[in-house]
Design a protein that fits this description.
Number of domains: 1
CATH topology: Rossmann fold
CATH class: Alpha Beta
CATH architecture: 3-Layer(aba) Sandwich
Largest sheet: 5 strands, parallel
Structural class: alpha/beta
Radius of gyration: 13 Å
Strand order of the largest sheet: 2-1-3-4-5
Distance between the termini: 15 Å
CATH superfamily: Response regulator
Order of helices and strands: EHEHEHEHEH
Shape: globular
Number of strands: 5
Amino acid sequence: MKLKKVLVVDDSELVHKMHGLVLQRYQKCEVLHTYDGNQALEALNKNPDVQLILLDINMPVMDGLRFLEVRKQTGLFTDIPVIIISTEGKEEDTKRGLALGAAGYVCKPFRPAQLHALIDSLFESRGGPETP
């Protein structure tokens, strides 16, 4: 399984740097960075080859749950798996995100191996990432 392009959606610059390092060491894939759900939708329109979305819940403009709602309502990008990066103590948001179509979640703080294992199991169950 080889990931080529991942979209990180989070309003924290520090989180972007951390996810970028983790993903580069894990798969050496291209990482796209957006800071809210609206930017994520724009990036997905321009980058149809994104294979995975790492999504924060609490963001300005359009939060992660609203992004998942729009995705579900429109049917756009529903073939791209979403992993919620959640804050401990926000289990209700995580449950809601999973109900809206997210494929999995990890709670902050997490070890890189936890994210790697989730990505591996996610794509093994799907037969590997699709390449357009």
